[in-house]
Amino acid sequence: MTKNVGQQKRVLVTGGAGFLGSHLCERLIADGCEVLCVDNFFTGRRSNVAHLLDHPSFELQRHDITFPLFVEVDEIYNLACPASPVHYQYDPVQTTKTSVHGAINMLGLAKRVRAKILQASTSEVYGDPQVHPQTEDYWGHVNPVGPRSCYDEGKRCAETLFFDYHRQHAVRIKVIRIFNTYGPRMHPNDGRVVSNFIVQALLGRPITIYGDGSQTRSFCYYSDLLDGMVRMMSTSDAITGPVNLGNPFEFTIRQLAEKIIDLTGSRARIEYKPLPANDPRQRKPDISQAIATLGWVPSTQLEQGLISTIAYFDGMLRDAPEAPFAEASVA
Ligand code: NAD
Ligand code: UDP
Description:
alpha/beta, Rossmann fold, UDP-galactose 4-epimerase, domain 1, 2 domains, seven-stranded parallel beta sheet, two-stranded parallel sheet, 13 strands, binds nicotinamide-adenine-dinucleotide, binds uridine-5'-diphosphate
């Protein structure tokens, strides 16, 4: 992709064939941008963007962001990184490389072509938080040597790099901290709680609650999240973040299981399994900054978002009932 002055805005989306990335590519094309989607297909799928392949404003490139990329763009959304604990713990060294080397490569690109760059950071930078709800000025409570550290510390280091490129090289940065987001196009074997519970409920398999299910999460529907992400990118250069993006309604994992059983009408039973190491006890974003700076509040209630997501997985299971939807779980 080369830059043409006066034409469409050219936007690079790394991790663009993943769950959030593919929806983002779609949204940016609808907004009139030219989109370059880059992905190494570790957790992303070509099928997520298959419907965009013939679009004149869309280009797909297989590339691993741990290697340098030479393209000409105006904006970069850096989403490349496995997000599910099962996937990011599969090859932890590659996970850290993706966050750290990937950030260096994408920031280097942003510096060279003077592009604005947004980092998809995470609520995991707060670790197992001792401040509740989590505000952006909380520095977090993260184990640097545990099984989740490749992701948590990788994302923390990426944030450091973003702010150092900003201070040292005047790169225009935007950092968002995404809290658990779900919706259609999550991988059925992804291992994250919403997709696991829905697939289990639809297949009539036991719903696997890790621990006693009293740990909490706050679930944001993907379309709300994308809206916040795009708003953040369009803020003035003075706004760097980090800004929390998530839905502040908090649920226990047991409540989530019960809601999904109810909405699917499933007869699946609940099965309790051991809690994975360093699993955060509670998580809920304070979104005051997003409200003040972006005028953003999520509008999709959990039940509404779950109904759409259940319909998506239901369609997928009907189309491929023989597919081996294996149980994915962390050790
Ligand atoms: P996902 O796994 O569906 O998407 C990640 C994409 O990145 C995949 O397409 C994958 O193939 C690609 N990728 C991974 N390593 C790569 C590499 N080295 N080079 C190029 N591509 C690579 O996950 P998602 O939920 O869509 O998450 C997208 C981003 O948002 C991630 O950075 C994640 O950390 C962040 N995030 C997501 C959530 C959430 O709840 N969905 C929460 C916090 C942060
Ligand atoms: N979880 C669960 N059963 C599952 C998958 C996850 O009970 O089949 C729990 C997990 O232990 C965690 C919460 O659900 O407490 C959210 O897990 P997820 O992997 O979706 O994201 P996390 O917020 O931990 O990164």
